[in-house]
Amino acid sequence: SRLRERRADFILYQVLDLSTDELQAVLQAYTMRLGYLEGYVGSEGEKACDPCDEVATCRMQLKVVMRRVRGMQRLLRHFKGHPEFSADLSGYLQDVVEHLDEAYEDAAQLVEKCTAIIEAQRRAADQRDQKVHQRTADRLNKTLFVLTVGTFIFAPMQFLAAVYGMNFVNEAGEPTIPELLWKKGYLFFWLATIGYLVLMLIFTTWWYYRIHRRSAEDARAEEGRRDSCIV
């Protein structure tokens, strides 16, 4: 075989060449795995997945690969100028050096990609948390709005009920509040109360939709400003 016909330096070249080829296969596997994990960035629902832990592990392992590649590059630089190596191996060693340079650049790009995936996932997580806080704040604001409207509507009715519910009488035992002596005073009270409720419900509905429409317009304007900043 060629290994038996050549010197020992050719065996060393074959070992380095096979190691470089295996290194390319390893980097290809990392590329495919990171591409798969990148699809889960910002995912929600049933496909929700946090790839940060695995991506961080991949980044650490790729940095180890880069250190190993640098070691192999130093080894090749040492062997290229060694007098014990035959001159016809220079072309072979140069091919291995080029492959190692490509592997080092690929590993560096994958490390940068890992960092980008982690940062994108963290931004997506921050956005999800912000949406949750926003929904909680909106729910709280709606609850406070309902309580405020209820107080606003029923406070005058409670005041009227308290006024006309007082039992002040004169010496003859008759109520001192003139409206209590009206023949149809009770009917008038309920007509006024129902009319007041109808007016307040109409006003409250108009007020709610006005606030909701203004909030939607502000949200669209903010989204437009954000898009313009991105462009």
Write out key terms for the chains shown:
231 residues; mainly alpha
- Any low-confidence stretches, pLDDT <50, length ≥5? none
The tally of beta strands, per DSSP, is: 0
Largest sheet, if any? none
Distance between the first and last residues' Cα: 62 Å
Oligomer: single chain
β-strand amount = under 5%
Helix content: over 70%
Overall residue-averaged pLDDT value = 79
**Judging from the principal axes of the Cα atoms, what is the shape?**
rod-shaped
Coarse structural class: mainly alpha
Spatial extent as radius of gyration: 40 Å
Structure annotation, total helices: 5
Write the H/E string, N to C.
HHHHH
Characterise this structure.
The chain is mostly helical. It has five helices and no strands. Helix 3 (52-80) runs antiparallel to helix 4. The chain is rod-shaped.
